[in-house]
Amino acid sequence: MATRRILSPRSAFGTHLRAISRQYSSSSETLSLAFDHHEPPKGDRHRQDSPIIFMHGLFGSKKNNRTVSRVLARDLKRHVYAVDLRNHGESPHDPRHDYLAMADDVAGFIREHGLQSPSLIGHSMGAKTAMTLALSSPDLIHDLVSVDNAPIDAVLGTSFARYVQGMRRIDAAGVTRQADADAILAEYEEELPIRQFLLGNLHRPAGSPAQKFRVPLGVLGKSLDNLGDFPFKDPAQRRFEKPALFVRGTRSKYVPDEVIPLIGQFFPRFTLVDIDAGHWLISEKPEEFLRAVIEFLTPKE
User: How far is CA 123 from each of CA 8, 53, 56, 85, 295, rounded to the nearest angstrom?
Assistant: First the structure.
């Protein structure tokens, strides 16, 4: 069951949310992103007119959100672009992997395709990318949906480093069957759905009998610390004054109650919807997720 709350941004927040000082550079080569285009059933809306851009999380890809993207295109009668962020899926690889670089890529995608007033939806890493773009280039977008992440510095769980270790073992083993890859990964992650999600990155390079991971494990492994951070620290300097929806899983630790006032300072027109799910709430509770997002993105009379 989803619970909707409209919360005030004025509450004071504790000193334990004090930002960690970390230097970021905005200079980066913008990469052209791979994408899937999901069209609404009737072709009377132009593909550049208020589309939705859907961004996946770490180790994900555009194919993860295929089903919900099709539903959004159908029910909202809007074009949906599910993108592969840099170093993921079919998008190019680059040694730099942080939120400013990923946000620059998405801004480049918007300009490259001439998209007007897009809505951003991002899960986890994609959510922080969406928030970063909203705060750095608010004129580019109309509104955003952040799924189970917040504009704070946080330490990523040790599971991600463990996943990289297991995936590197699979690459080194030269496996030819996914069952063999899964047997190795089972030593690092006991939940089958998460293993299947990670193994979705395997592919067989041309001329090779062995399966390899499509994502650059070295780059992502070195970037894990950056992916817990958020590049903007002071809501007095950066603020997104347009509508924003934050959807969180109540059984996830990514958006604790104490960060909600800070969300309100960065995004003063935000709405919070709680869903009884963990961090992977889109796959756990797709109907409740879609209901919240469709209600938010439906034009108000």
Answer: 23, 12, 5, 12, 18
How many residues are given for the chain? 301
Measured on CA atoms in the order 198, 183, 179, 210, is the torsion positive or negative? positive
Cα–Cα distance measured from residue 282 to residue 260, given in angstroms and rounded to the nearest whole number: 21
Does the pLDDT of residue 95 top 50, yes or no?
yes
Contact 211, 198 (CB under 8 A): no
Residue bearing tokens 């270790």: 165
Would you give the DSSP letter of residue 94?
A: -
Stated as kind and residue range, the H or E segment containing 195 is helix 192-199
Distance CA 55, CA 63 (A): 10
Pair of tokens at residue 266: 């960065």
Catalytic pick among 61, 124, 136, 252: 124
The per-residue pLDDT for range 37-54, each reduced to its tens digit, is 999 998 778 888 899 999
- Annotation marks residue 279 as catalytic: yes
- What is the spatial distance between Cα 199 and Cα 212, in angstroms, rounded to a whole number? 10
Q: What is the pTM (predicted TM-score) of this model?
A: 0.89
Handedness of CA 266, 270, 273, 279 (dihedral sign): negative
Q: 113 an active-site residue?
A: no
**pLDDT tier, 5 (very low <50, low <70, confident <90, very high otherwise):** low
